Amino acid sequence: MRRLRLPILLLCTALLASLPQGTAAADGPAPPAAGPRPLDQVIPAPASVRPGGDPYTIGGRTVIRVPAGSAEARRVGSYLAGLLRPSTGHPLPLTTRPGADGIRLRLGGPEELGEEGYRLHASPRSVEIRARTASGLFHGVQTLRQLLPARVEARRKQPGPWRVAGGTVTDVPRYAYRGAMLDVARHFFTVEQVKRYIDQLALYKINTLHLHLTDDQGWRIAIDSWPRLATHGGSTEVGGGPGGHYTKDDYREIVRHAAARHMTVVPEIDMPGHTNAALASYPELNCDGVAPPLYTGIEVGFSSLCVPLETTYDFVDDVVREIAELTPGPYLHIGGDEAHRTGEEDYARFMERAQRIVAEHGKTVVGWHQITGAEPAEGAIAQYWGTAGREEGVAEAARNGTRLILSPADRAYLDMKYDETTPLGLSWAGHVEVRQSYDWDPGAHIEGVPGDAVLGVEAPLWTETVENGDHIEFMAFPRLPGIAELGWSPASAHDWEDYRTRLAAQGPRWELMGIDYWRSPQVPWTD
Ligand code: TNX
Fold it and tell me: Could you report the per-residue pLDDT of 351-361, keeping only the tens digit for each?
């Protein structure tokens, strides 16, 4: 017995010492060990921080006050309680009774806070989060979460204190669209895996989940009017595994889970290329009437819907209608990339009709930036995935009103290897280390694009080599928070040295969340 005690004690001390108390960086002065985390030490960096006054401490008598009469705001309060109760061990009851103490979520505030902004004010009496919308409250809650010690992420009771530094954070996003894309076509991911990723994205104020639902290797969503798309087209994946597809109820569950985290789902049906799974499911979609075999390799650009065939547009109309019905959000992504088997004129013809069909079903078109080679519909959004930063066609479309989502492959692609040792991923756009993915400005990235044409940023995760949840996390972390910061924080907050220190402090949080991340040598991890 006696001999065991010392090692256990040492282990506990080491464990406690490894928990972040502030933001000690390898190359910066460490704040006092017991001090609360400074208000600016969160990701994305807040737009404005005014530190001052004594901290707030969450304790056994803390209540969470939510506004009466807003079910949405109350749900944000419940979400916060669900985060804090297991690790703090405090009851944290929700109440609509007004009062000056506790954690106070309040609706209202200056117009400048907009649709998603919030103001967090901490003093010894309370932490108040104010916003004009429940989404703003939700983002404020993510800031509060990051201001607490990393061990708040543990699902069992941890030692306090649970302090929030005194002062005020006033925060609004730079861009309205802050996305992450998951390719569920090359490899299929279960509803639970997608929900877990949504939970992780929410921590960084990502507000859009783009699901790449169809590709050559798999069709992943049930379409009632064309059932074989899912049952046959979804029956395998890269490498020949069993694949799978979402029933409509599965998909609704993903949309619901995302909405509860103030995230909109953008479904993508990739057309006219990347359609082998559909062509394999229905011979009548092929120009020669012959269905090709299912495909489990990773080549791109070899398939195309048959542009002259009228059946093609019946198919597009049915699919878009059924997908639009499942989609509360405004956008429907129609792909349009790498249609190497579709002639230029056919491509323009197809895109013109496909865009019209999307509009008829009440949605706004998003397409990969190749759609700027056709005539983009009014209000269309193009997603740039090039590597050159020069793309005259894209710039011209932007000057003519097409809005852009930026996902430059050599910066934002989460499927690129970090370096030559990365066991997963591709490298056609080069290696993308943490600094490379963070250190660029979406507002000035493509020559000749007016800054206000940029709707936002997105980090796509293609899954040719990504087979399970651990793989998703290893490729997304630590790059995803950098793209999230580019989407949220003002350009004036951009600073690699400061960012990498803040990023380092996320490591212990990820460990407690069970996230297996790449320990990039560019980041001064604290343990
Ligand atoms: C290009 S980017 C693709 C995908 C691949 C990806 C792999 C784009 C619109 N198309 O089909 O999965 O590269 O990095």
Answer: 999 999 999 99
Instruction: List, by residue range, all CATH 3.30.379.10 domains of the chain.
Output: 48-171
- Rg (Cα) of the chain, in Å, rounded? 24
Cα–Cα distances in Å, from 49 out to 93, 161, 489? 29, 23, 12
284-313 confidence digits (pLDDT tens): 999 999 999 999 999 999 999 999 999 999
Architecture per CATH, 177-492: Alpha-Beta Barrel (3.20)
What does pLDDT average to over the chain?
A: 93
* Rounded Cα distance, 408 and 403, in Å: 15
Q: In what order do the strands lie in the sheet with 118-122?
A: 48-51, 167-171, 118-122, 126-131, 102-107, 64-65, 94-95
What would the pLDDT profile of 319-344 be if each residue is shown by its tens digit?
999 999 999 999 999 999 998 999 99
Query: In this structure, which long-range contacts are made by residues 226-235, counting pairs with CB atoms below 8 Å and at least 24 apart in sequence?
Result: 226/281, 226/282, 226/315, 226/318, 226/319, 228/281, 228/282, 229/277, 229/278, 229/281, 229/282, 229/319, 232/280, 232/281, 232/294, 233/277, 233/278, 233/280, 233/281, 233/294, 234/188, 234/277, 235/294
Beta bridge partners of 107: 131
Closest atom, ligand 1, to C-alpha of 335: 9
- Using the atom order of ligand 1, give the atom closest to the CA of residue 215: 11
Q: Record the tokens describing residue 509, joined without a space.
A: 């949080």
**Residue reference for tokens 């798309």:** 229
Predicted pLDDT of residue 34: 63
d(CA 237, CA 234): 8
Tokens of 56: 């707030």
Chain mean position to CA 466:
17
If you measure from the C-alpha of residue 449 to the centroid of ligand 1, how many angstroms do you get, rounded to a whole number? 23
Distance CA 425, CA 475 (A): 8
The CA distance from 208 to 457, in Å, is 10
Verdict on whether the full-model pTM lies above 0.90: yes
- C-alpha 213 to ligand 1 mean position (Å): 13
Exactly one of 237, 268, 299, 338 is catalytic; which is it? 338
In the chain, CATH 3.20.20.80 sits at 177-492
Give ligand 1 pocket residues (Cβ under 6 A): 300, 337-338, 368, 385, 413, 415, 426, 462, 464
Domain 48-171 has CATH 3.30.565.10: no
Number of C-alpha atoms within 13 angstroms, CB side, residue 206?
A: 27
Catalytic residue list contains 338: yes
Q: What is the DSSP string of 399-443?
A: HTT-EEEE--HHHH-TTB-SSTT-SS-B-TT----HHHHHSS-GG
The Cα 324–Cα 499 span in angstroms is 39
The CA angle 332-491-383, to the nearest 5 degrees, is 20
Contact 205, 488 (CB under 8 A): yes
* Cα-to-centroid distance, 217 and ligand 1 (Å): 13
Q: Ligand 1: distance of its center to the CA of 462 in Å?
A: 7
